[in-house]
Amino acid sequence: SITSEFAAAGAPGTGQQEPYVYLFEKLAGSNWSLDSSDITRPSTLNERFGYSVHVDDSTLFVGAPGLSTSSNPVAPQGSVFVYPLLPGADSNLNNFTGSETRLTASQGSDDDEFGYAIDGKGRFLVVGAPNANSGQGATYVRERPTLGGNGSWGETQLDYAPILNTQDRFGASVAIDGTNLIVGAPARHRSLDDEQKSKGEAFSYSFNDDTWKAETPPDQYPTPTLGGGVSYGDQLGTSVAIHGDLALLGAPQPNGRLEGQISGDGTGYVYLRQVDPPGAKILPKTQEKLLEG
């Protein structure tokens, strides 16, 4: 994750490797400097601290989807840690470690993996918990505390649960730009799909009248954000990105396509999704295969 002032990179570690997050700060010219005090959490093996990161010009967000609760230390409910930053400050992480805020899902449960994917813009932070509800997945929008408020982060859970199936992994990828956001569900499968050969889907939302509203009609199949030509095994929505009226949807075919499907060699695709201008209803005008592996 990168801004004009900072860049952050997570190294969540595996097994006996300790997790770290590295913060870089922009110097004069085109040089970058690694903050002299990287950040870690002692005795947090397998908590995947740094699995996801997001940074803006005032805040560092670190996802730890494997972090367990004290009541059930072996089940990863997950958390996101929020660290304040000051441009130009020497050793930002050293100065602010200890003053971080920990975000969790208010209605979260064991094994949710809250913090698996994060992205932010302005006052909003989007957090995916793809293992929630037996793998259906859940996604939350957290809103920064307001001046003069109680200091707590607002929370909205995005509405799509009625049409999700077990192991869809809604929230495995998230992206936000302004008041528009995309959520990937790469294991999304309908009655004809199996879990490992899923087409996958992605869903769009917009913020209107102080409410996050789904813009992809739940009664259409394929949904409007399903890339044209997607087939069984593509797992569309493994990665997503959005900027203005364009969204990119990754379909890596991690296990190849089902036998008999066109181009089943597992090379993968990226789909370009064009949406209406900001402020209008987010529905695609065109969808096409953008890149081929």
Structural class: mainly beta
Proportion of β residues?
35-45%
Strand order of the largest sheet: 4-5-8-9
Compute the number of strand runs. Answer: 21
- Integer average pLDDT: 77
N- and C-termini, Cα separation: 24 Å
SSE order, as H and E? EEEEEEEEHEEEHEEEEEEEEEE
Helix content: under 10%
The geometry reads as: globular
Give me the Rg, rounded: 19 Å
What labels describe this entry?
single chain; 293 residues; mainly beta; four-stranded antiparallel beta sheet; 2 helices; 3% helix
Give a short overview.
The protein has 293 residues and is mainly beta. It has two helices and 21 strands.
Q: Overview of this structure, please?
A:
A hairpin with a 5-residue loop joins strand 2 (20-26) and strand 3. The protein has helices at residues 92-96, 132-135, and strands spanning 6-11, 20-26, 32-34, 52-55, 59-64, 68-69, 72-76, 79-84, 101-103, 117-121, 124-129, 138-143, 154-157, 173-177, 180-185, 201-208, 211-214, 239-243, 246-251, 269-275, 284-292. The relative contact order is 0.09. The protein is mostly beta strands. It is built from two helices and 21 strands. The strands form six sheets. Strands 4-5-8-9 form a four-stranded antiparallel β-sheet.
SSE layout and pairing:
Elements: E1 6-11, E2 20-26, E3 32-34, E4 52-55, E5 59-64, E6 68-69, E7 72-76, E8 79-84, H1 92-96, E9 101-103, E10 117-121, E11 124-129, H2 132-135, E12 138-143, E13 154-157, E14 173-177, E15 180-185, E16 201-208, E17 211-214, E18 239-243, E19 246-251, E20 269-275, E21 284-292
Antiparallel strand pairs: 1-2, 2-3, 4-5, 5-8, 6-7, 8-9, 10-11, 11-12, 12-13, 14-15, 15-16, 16-17, 18-19, 19-20, 20-21
